[in-house]
Fold this protein.
Amino acid sequence: MTRIFTPQKAASPSIVVRSSALALLALAATSATLLADTSKRHAESHEHGAATLEIAVDGNKLLAEFTSPAMNIVGFEHIAEDESDISSVKTAIENLKEGEKLILLEQGGCTLTNVTIEAEGLLQDAHEAHEEDEHDGHSEFEAAYKFTCTTPDALKTVAVGFFKAWPGIEEIETVFLSEKHQISAELMPNAPQFEVE
Ligand SMILES: [Zn+2]
């Protein structure tokens, strides 16, 4: 017999190696580009009623980035011009800053240290003027919450308060990345949390 052909034995080790390498690559790529790519990806997946939450744990730092179409939050997506619209946007920004009420991290010893809110295409100011050219008629809120955690490995549950604050949010596509976890979850008003396991 000259034909020695054992595809399964030959194939399986390489598949194992390949998939774990891919997983590592995916994790590295996702972590590295999590911030850089979010606005781009969100613009592509802008869907009224839906929002996204991306959480990345790196050492004792936890970053949670929430993005929602403005429609879900203030009920419109144009640049606020009259007083009532401007006031709605400003109130939304103030409420979005209350990260302790919006992202509840159980047992990680996490403390909110910094919040950044962007209201893209909603408030007229010099900073955003250059974006108007490519504005597609949709607007979003982006909120970035930075936490410092004393026991990040003990983090057990992540719950969100976004649904209660804004009933216009119907679902939140969530991704949680850490050295040990890659979790994706679809949060709903009746299931606003997931376990880190
Ligand atoms: Zn929209």
